[in-house]
Design goal:
Helix content: 25-40%
Order of helices and strands: HEHEEHEHEHEHEEEH
Number of strands: 9
Mean pLDDT: 88
Strand order of the largest sheet: 1-2-4-5-6-7-8-9
Strand content: 15-25%
Length: 285
């Protein structure tokens, strides 16, 4: 019997690699298909994230004089700011038809915004109507969060009401979330003598808060729409953009409109109650 060829049972190298290549190609095609499907379903949000990331990346190249056109159909425009915006030229902001501003004071039970005091002082000096807001963390006790806000914010007659920002989704029991939100609102209303404003974004509000806090004025964040889908009777302020430019601020800032005229906004302010002093900083009772 003739000897077997030494190459008869050995597959060519190309033949051995071919199944691996086919598997890789299938995986790439599947990833592209799934990625494309996800993008089509969430393209508005993803595009907005990409724009904000680019704005943050290019922030150092901005002049602080960039300007986003005011939203047509509204006469009262405002912003909300935190330490993220850096040092703000408030007189320049006021010259560009910004009539009101909500300034971050605190977050959770311990975090104080490091720029609150300066923003509060300089915005009021520039003639901008001011209010302060607290970013609510569902994992922390509502009373502790109310105590922190009350220690920091010296609201006085003529200021806009305090605001509770409720949008953090890291909670397990919506009933507990609502209970602690209600506690913060109740304690802060008793402390300052004025009903707070509730802030949330459209999807979070519809899913977790709608129907439970209807006695409180609503500040609604809803982007990429011509108008909020909630009827105007449900909200008083609409945050229509989180990527606007206002001269005096280097980088993007949230843009808002008040649904009424300036006199209606003024009517929201904490009223003067005679010769009494501003609310004293301390624990919310």
């Amino acid at each position: 019997m003739p000897p077997l060829s030494s190459t008869a049972s050995v597959a060519p190298p190309a033949a051995r690699r071919r199944p691996w290549r086919r598997g890789l190609l299938a995986a790439v095609l599947l990833a592209l298909l799934l990625g494309g499907t996800y993008y089509l379903r969430h393209q508005v949000q993803l595009n907005r994230y990409a724009r904000r990331a680019w704005a943050t990346f290019t922030k150092n190249g901005l002049t602080g004089r960039e300007k986003t056109p005011l939203l047509a159909g509204y006469s009262v425009h405002g912003i909300d700011v935190s330490s993220y915006q850096g040092r703000i030229d408030w007189p320049e902001v006021a010259r560009n038809r910004v009539r009101f501003a909500f300034i971050k004071a605190s977050e959770g039970a311990t975090l104080r915004d490091p720029r609150f005091a300066r923003n509060w002082r300089e915005a009021r000096k520039a003639g901008v109507l001011c209010g302060a807001y607290h970013y609510f963390l569902p994992s922390r006790d509502g009373k502790l969060q109310a105590d922190l806000f009350a220690k920091i914010v010296p609201l006085a007659p003529g200021d806009l009401p305090p605001v509770l920002d409720v949008e953090a989704a890291n909670f397990h029991d919506v009933a507990v979330l609502r209970r602690e939100v209600a506690r913060w609102l109740r304690l802060i209303e008793a402390h300052y003598g004025v009903r707070p404003i509730l802030y949330s974004n459209h999807s979070f509000y519809k899913r977790h808060l709608a129907g439970h806090f209807d006695d409180y004025p609503l500040w609604l964040a809803h982007y990429e729409v011509e108008r909020p889908t909630l009827p105007p009777s449900k909200w008083i302020i609409w945050q229509h953009s989180d990527e606007a430019y206002v001269p005096g601020i280097r980088g993007v800032v949230d843009f808002n409109v008040f649904k009424g005229n300036f006199e209606s906004l003024q009517a929201l302010r904490i009223p003067a109650t005679g010769p009494s002093q501003p609310a004293r900083a301390g624990k919310a009772k």
